[in-house]
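As a warm-up, study this chain.
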Amino acid sequence: MPNIDRFESVFRAAAKTVFHHRPVALRSVLVVTDLEGAAADAYAARVKHFLAGLPKADAVEWSVAQGDAVETVGALLERVQQAQPDLVCTYRNLHSGAFRWPYTLGDHVEVLTQVTTVPVLLLPRPDAAAALEERLANTDRVMAVTDHLTGDDALVNWAVALTAPKGTLLLAHVEDEAVFERYMAVIGKVPDVDTATAREQIRAQLLKEPRDFIETCRAGLTAAGVDLRVDAEVTMGHHLSVYRDLVAEHAVDLLVMNTKDEDQLAMHGLAYPLAVEFRGLPLLML
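Now compare it with the structure written out below.
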């Protein structure tokens, strides 16, 4: 490798992306349910209790959209537009019997997550009593998941906002091993490249960058006086199986993920399969 190329590579490898902490302002929360009356109020109370440990929770303005008022997707979008909430809390398969089959989120949620810019907190359904009792206790252990953590300040800041004080924020970055192996197979066919060295160094760099970014997250949050613990899980593997293991191992209370993709109308990357897979776990969908 020419000296100038070697110098440029070393310089780029040494450059680090730094996390910037920008506190999320949660001033208003809209709870959406197909229940009515006392049942709707009871569900909203459970949601409020779930988020009670958040900073300035007492100052949050709560509103409830219930029953027939949001029976259609259009009516729901109109209500969100009118309320302009900072967060929408709801559950799968609103006004639908499809909850009996664990393969869909329902029209309301799928459109809501893609059409609006408001983060959606997807919670266990009110008819899943066991999941409600177990999962809507607190947000002491929050996990942010992505395959591109470095530089994703918004994902981290939202995860911080929903982690209870003195809680644990787990930042998880999983590189897709199948994609890595496909590129390594191509590199192995290039005579001028030392395949063994390329495998070792590329893998190391792929995992080093998110680890470095997480260190800047720790430093930034400590400097800002944020009272929580930051743990890291950076690995390579099959996304869904790794996340399933991490959720169980760390007894995660809330999963935070990105859902929007600028290049397509459909949900971003792994967001949909994760949302379908973790039906009993609260999910923040950005």
